[in-house]
Amino acid sequence: MQQSKSILPSSLHVLIVEDVPADAELVLLTLETANIATICEVVDTLDACQQLLQEKSWDVVLADFRLKGFNAYKVLELLKQSGQEVPLILVTGSLGEEAAVDCIKAGMTDYVLKDRLFRLPMVLKRSLQEFELKRQQRLATAQIYQQAQRETIVNRIVQAMRKTLVLDEVLQTTVDMVSDALQPSSCLIIRPNATNQMVVCNVNEAASQEWKQLLNQPCEAYSYFAEALHRDELIVVNCTEDLSQLAMQELAAQYRVHAFLTLPLIYQQNFLGGLSLYQCDRERNWTSDEIAMIQAIADQCAIAIHQAQLFSQVQQHAKQERFLNQIGHTLNSSLDPGYILQEIVRLTGECFGVDRALLFAIEAGRIHIKNEWLISQQIPSMTDFNASVAEWFDSPKRTPQDAKTNFVFHAPDYTLLPPTPARLTLVHQKDVLSVLSVPIFIRDQFFGGLEIHTTTVHRRFTQDEIDLLQRIADQAAIALYNAQSYERLEQIIQARTRELEEEKLLSDAANRAKSEFLANMSHELRTPLTGILGFSSVLLKQVFGSLNEKQQQYIEKIAACGEHLLSLINDLLDLSKIEAGREDLILESVDVRELGETCISLIQEQAESKGLQVSMAIAPEVDYCVADRRRLKQILFNLLSNAVKFTETGSVTLAIDYGKKPTSGTPPDHLSTTSCSPILTPHSPFITFNVIDTGIGISPEGLSLLFQPFQQLDGGLDRKYQGTGLGLVLARKLAQLHGGDISVTSELGSGSCFTLHLPKDGQEAGDSRE
């Protein structure tokens, strides 16, 4: 604690309690000698001492320890009763050490022996200094206590504010707790209403009924202090009789107000309202601590109002976004223009809480009400209203040209506009009081507009509401354009569908004619070809005589060409029969191992001639399958002979196991030399025949050409590998006829794996033929 720079006041008020006049004079002389200015009074009785302590304030009391009829302890008791906290110094003739300690403990400040009065000024200064320090400490403690009390009250109010997001509850809590803390006659909050008029919005619960009647009423006192409050100035009135404004004095007298305190509620330079305290039973000196506390509460109250406004804005924006999303969902759920328009006006009317919503279009220079929504049946309908464009846009500012530049028409009081025939009809027959209208454009073409009306009260729409209605109109324009586009597209699609159906009928007829022609021609071609092969065989046997070397060579070529032509005719016949739906499978139980060995034996000689190793690997649990034996053998032989044809060195392997049917049209990504299909259990519904070779492989581009009729990967004039290009096509169609499929994995230069997936029990074969 810092010491006071001035230990003694300019003049000390000293009370001397002494029953010996000479001793009292000696004390005064000592103070005078030490240049200590004093105003002294001397008393020698207890009654006189009590009277002076009650009548006057003193800086110090000097008393003899032993007095006639009483002692210093009585003086100390009287000093405490007076409430004065000043030093009591003993000036005594003799005082033992033990008695001195008892005196100090009892509350006396210090003592000086009369034979050492020269020490009195020093003791006096020291005692006054100690009391000054104690006074400052008490004052600081009191300030800290008051600050703590103020912060406690403010914190209680802040905590109460945080318990709710409802602004009215926050403000009501504020006035109630301020009333409990400071005990005014009334505490109220004023805020601007929708028309920006300052009204009383909250009154403390303990206020009289007279004050509670002011709720939601205009604040009459606000106009007298509005400028000062907007400048963030406090209005502090300790006595209303001191007011310079006579009208304000009369208003205070009307409500019996003797003192009041009003603080502005301002946040970020925005005036939000005021907090007022009124004292009606007496005049009141508003202390600095009270003002500081109320100022802190007002600041918190302003923050709460601002946060509530932000929260309200966020909620409003969220509500608008939800509404727009609802409109968007509704519009996107249908392409029926009539439904879309009706939903727009319904949702718009419900969102804005108006009495009528309508959507109009301009057709042939006239206004037509396309859709309408009414809040109740008591609201007059406008569906029968029909007017020319000139009559509808009858305001100098409301013209079709203005509408084309996104003109928004807003009339809070429609009845105040200049009267015209169309407007008089709307006012008197359709009860229109307020109007908000926004235009609708479709591809920069003015379609019409979206309007909302009130018919019972006047209403001024906010800028946010105007912007929202414009956004609704924009969504409506998009939806209408999409609906119109869909109608046009639907007409085009219907026309194109009819064309495609006609083309399909022609194509199907042509395919059937082609298949039947190929089937018939194959039989016709096979008959003479059989003769050619038969005669060439007889000639090669030299039954009718020996042939020379040249003849033998030509006859062998004729036979080879005949065999090749027969193979081509057979493939064509089989393919055309399948496409014509004339191929029927003869399903039977087939021994898988026996079938595999038979197929291997058929290509064994061809493979050994090329030095290839041929093998078969069959899983132990594989036993039988249900299939057309001849067609299954044809598929496997085709795949094995292809593998031998396109393999120069290495091996060809037939691996048989259980697996699953591949995803249609999706060949495996990479070749596996051990297994080309996932291994399943013997209970798997599919059996797989994997033909694995180490041949030339197939490029990714070549894979797309597989299973296409008459396609060969080495196609061109200089073909190395002979063939019709129908083998794989026929094999796959036969597999699909069984309810299975063929998939392929391959890597260029590393070999290929063709996998036949076949239903083990033939369950899917019937479905595939249908």
Folded structure, characterized:
With 770 residues, this protein is an alpha+beta fold. The protein has five domains: 12-139, Response regulator (Rossmann fold, 3-Layer(aba) Sandwich), CATH 3.40.50; 164-313, 2-Layer Sandwich (Beta-Lactamase); 334-489, Beta-Lactamase (2-Layer Sandwich), CATH 3.30.450; 508-583, Helix Hairpins (Orthogonal Bundle), CATH 1.10.287; 584-769, 2-Layer Sandwich (Heat Shock Protein 90). β1 (12-17), α1 (21-33) and β2 form a beta-alpha-beta unit. α2 runs parallel beside α3 (72-82) and α10 (288-332) runs parallel beside α15. The relative contact order is 0.04. Mean pLDDT is 82; it is low at 1-6, 664-675, 677-681, 715-719 and 765-770.
Shape: elongated
Distance between the termini: 108 Å
Number of helices: 21
Number of strands: 25
Tell me which CATH architecture of the largest domain applies here: 2-Layer Sandwich
Q: Helical residue percent?
A: 40-55%
Q: Could you tell me the CATH topology label of the largest domain.
A: Heat Shock Protein 90
Could you list some keywords that capture this structure?
6-stranded antiparallel β-sheet, 770 residues, Beta-Lactamase, 25 strands, disordered N terminus, Rossmann fold, elongated, 21 helices, alpha+beta, 5 domains
Short recap of the structure:
This protein has 21 helices and 25 strands. It is an alpha+beta fold. The chain has a six-stranded antiparallel beta sheet with strand order 15-14-13-18-17-16. The protein has a five-stranded parallel beta sheet with strand order 2-1-3-6-7, sandwiched between helices. The chain has a five-stranded antiparallel beta sheet with strand order 9-8-12-11-10, sandwiched between helices.
